[in-house]
Amino acid sequence: ASIATSRARMAQRPAGAGAQLLLLALLARAGIGLDELKLAKPAFPTGPDIAQAIRAGRIDCGIAPRSVAKSAGLDFLPLAWERFDLVLRQRDYFMPGPQALFGFMRAPMLRDRAAELGGYDVSDTGSVRLVN
User: Fold this and answer.
1) Helices (H), the chain
2) Residue 10 needs a FRET pair 20 to 30 A away by CA distance; which of 42, 78, 88, 116 works?
3) Closest by alpha carbon to 44, among 20, 60, 24?
4) 74 near 55, Cβ under 8 Å?
5) What number of CA atoms fall less than 13 Å from residue 78's CA on the CB side?
6) Helix %, strand %, coil % of the chain (to 5)
7) d(Cα 67, Cα 119) in Å, to the nearest integer?
8) 3-class DSSP assignment, residue 67
9) Does the predicted model carry a pTM greater than 0.85?
């Protein structure tokens, strides 16, 4: 609502991009139409493209991960937290490919990199939940 009221120049992402879907959901929840925002055109392909445009002064804000804002030296306001799960058949869990992936997910290197980037909670990474 504050972005619509202030008429800040807002980045948008291509239709179907997760950040664009989040923007549309947040606007719907607030009862604000997309046409009420001062949208920059064309759509920005990636979060780093948004960060670069903010640093250049072409736009004022956009939706991107904390890690993108941090790497560009920009301020960040959290809007949502997402959880990602990998779903596979139980019989496939023991195959070499998934086991290599799970080994990497449990490695200190992944946790260190996530901490360095900022904004990622990897505390449950690699945990297994059975779903029937």
Assistant:
1) 2-6, 18-30, 47-56, 66-72, 96-106, 108-117
2) 116
3) 20
4) yes
5) 7
6) 45, 5, 50
7) 6
8) helix
9) no
Residues linked to residue 82 through DSSP beta bridges, in sequence order: none
Q: At what angle do helices 108-117 and 96-106 cross, to 10 degrees?
A: 60
Half-sphere exposure of 56 (CA within 13 A, CB side): 8
**Cα(54)–Cα(63) distance, integer angstroms:** 11
Helices (H) and strands (E) in the chain, counts: 6, 2
DSSP β-bridge partners for residue 110: none
Give me the pLDDT at residue 126, please: 83
Single out the residue of 26, 57, 28 nearest to residue 40, CA to CA.
57
Structure tokens at 111: 């946790």
Mean pLDDT by 10 residues, the chain (132 residues): 94 95 95 95 96 97 95 94 88 94 92 90 86 76
